[in-house]
Amino acid sequence: MIKQVKKYHDALNKVLSAIYQTNYSFEILFVLGRPIDNNDSIENRELVANILKPMNARVVYYQELIENAYKAYNEYIAANKQSQPLIDMFSQLESSMDD
Asked: I need a labelling partner for 43 at 20 to 30 A (CA). Which of 17, 27, 59, 96 fits?
């Protein structure tokens, strides 16, 4: 995996430096279905994170990605419900201005 990260990092660095010259940043994400070496210990996760960090890379697990997206969507829906009366009021104002 380290060789693959280095390959991605070097390729992205080369392309972005050619395009932007300076002031660019990127992050490499590996979306995995299960922990590396099937070792889900906190120590192993920290070890992997520390190895990948210097290359602006990190691991995201598929299940966590889904759970975070679901949580964010639910927060969006809840916020939308709270603002719905305000949205309705603006819609009514807009409709009355058209008349």
From this structure: 27
